[in-house]
Write a structure and sequence with these properties.
The complex is a heterodimer of chains A (116) and B (115). With 116 residues, chain A is mainly β. Chain A is 0% helix and 47% strand. In chain A, strands 2, 4, 5, 8, 9 and 10 form a six-stranded mixed β-sheet that branches. A four-stranded antiparallel β-sheet of chain A has the order 1-3-7-6, with no helix packed on it. In chain A, β6 and β7 form a beta hairpin. Chain A is globular, with a radius of gyration of 14 Å. Chain B is an all-beta fold. Helix content of chain B is 0%, strand content 52%. Chain B has no helices and twelve strands. In chain B, strands 2, 5, 6, 10, 11 and 12 form a six-stranded mixed β-sheet that branches. Chain B has a four-stranded antiparallel β-sheet with strand order 3-9-8-7, with no helix packed on it. A two-stranded antiparallel ribbon of chain B has the order 1-4. In chain B, a hairpin with a 5-residue loop joins β7 and β8. Classes of the chains: A mainly beta (116), B mainly beta (115). Chains A and B meet through β4, β5 and β8 of A and β6, β10 and β11 of B.
Amino acid sequence: GAGVSQSPSNKVTEKGKDVELRCDPISGHTALYWYRQSLGQGLEFLIYFQGNSAPDKSGLPSDRFSAERTGGSVSTLTIQRTQQEDSAVYLCASTKGGQGYNSPLHFGNGTRLTVT
Amino acid sequence: AQSVTQLGSHVSVSEGALVLLRCNYSSSVPPYLFWYVQYPNQGLQLLLKYTSAATLVKGINGFEAEFKKSETSFHLTKPSAHMSDAAEYFCAVSEVNTGFQKLVFGTGTRLLVSP
């Protein structure tokens, strides 16, 4: 079946612009995560959604970052007023949820964001 | 706070040789531990995980890891390297009681396999 799909695969934007990154999780997966992979910070947790519950936003680095998940499926990560330090690969992952660690994270191939 | 240390940003082995990738963790409570692999231009794929059952964990592609509480280690091994094992490997830790997979990753080790 289809895996986690992320779009665009690459995004180049100018400093100060807003960007939206999209994630389509695996069908039936109720839990969705965003992670960021950057040269300076490695892999970092950003945000977690589970069903219709309030998301865990504890990993978002600043209030310029926000994310939503519509209808319990597709998620959009928005970065406002982008800065050069936002350049990274943004990874989305989904899992069945409600099974603790018995259900592995399935990662997409990521969106490579470059802020010039 | 939890942390993970991976010794060696690059490890080089010959095809057929033993693979040993080191991971040490720091956690205030018994952790869950993971190894993920990332092939070029792809997302991460779970190799194996330790969730407080058997201390020797077997994963995919012939990899295994042993949880050693006394050494706070979770090293990844494979008896015989294959060219297809060339990738970046990440060790990760998560607290048991978070209720979701909020992982803290190490900085990664790139495995190079030569013929």
